[in-house]
Amino acid sequence: xxxxxxxxxxxxxxxxxxxxxxxEAGEGDSIAITGPSGSGKSTLMNxxxxxxxxxxxxxxxxxxxxxxxxxxxxxxxRNRNIGFVFQDHLLLNHLTIRENILLPLxxxxxxxxxxxEKLSYCDLLAERxxxxxxxxxxxxxxxxxxxxxxxxxxxxxxxxxxxxxxEPTGSLDAKNAENLGSLLVELNREFRxxxxxxxxxxxxxxxxxxxxxxxxxxxxx
Length: 221
Ligand SMILES: Nc1ncnc2c1ncn2[C@@H]1O[C@H](COP(=O)(O)OP(=O)(O)O)[C@@H](O)[C@H]1O
Ligand SMILES: [Mg+2]
Prior knowledge:
Bound molecules: adenosine-5'-diphosphate, magnesium ion
Distance between the termini: 19 Å
Largest sheet: 6 strands, mixed
Helix content: 25-40%
Strand order of the largest sheet: 6-7-8-3-9-10
Number of domains: 1
CATH architecture: 3-Layer(aba) Sandwich
Number of strands: 10
Order of helices and strands: EEEHEEHEHHHEHEHEE
CATH class: Alpha Beta
């Protein structure tokens, strides 16, 4: 499904961050990427999610390179295929949880039928992650763990085939981190969504089928 071929990326002040890195993910895989702070996990996740470009190498999604897509095509690629969850929930405080979750749907033109369908899918997901009663609250009225579950619903409402989670439990306490870890694995199985998680957490990493370590710009098993 996803193939990174000899990806390299440097930053002027830092030098080489990713060095001829190779990664393959199949449909439905779950992969943990660990590595110390500054090892390049976020850089790698951003390249997979087409938020950043490598200096060299290729990124292929279902056989097609995404690197020669135009900006328009790239945002289409992201909207159709990829869900993001970050360390900080990035919910907007002046919108309700439901409005926050539905916001990405307005990035693309969709028919009203499609909109209705996604609305009910969003309610189903909210029920699945246990935030149905919180949909009309504002982000500051709910806990960090609840907010992170809301971002998972937001990430999945567009039915992506690939979920990228960058330190999703980074700002949660141990109990909430554990719950979020089990939830991600359950969603990976139930929806057969491919899951790539960058994490510091040994517990989270151990839940994934494959655990890779980012070391000196390369991924090692
Ligand atoms: N946009 C950028 N400009 C300059 N340096 C960057 C940029 N993004 C990341 N870096 C540097 O690249 C290295 C890897 O960062 P990052 O991918 O965020 O690591 P991690 O997520 O593993 O903590 C760090 O040294 C960081 O300072
Ligand atoms: Mg990071």
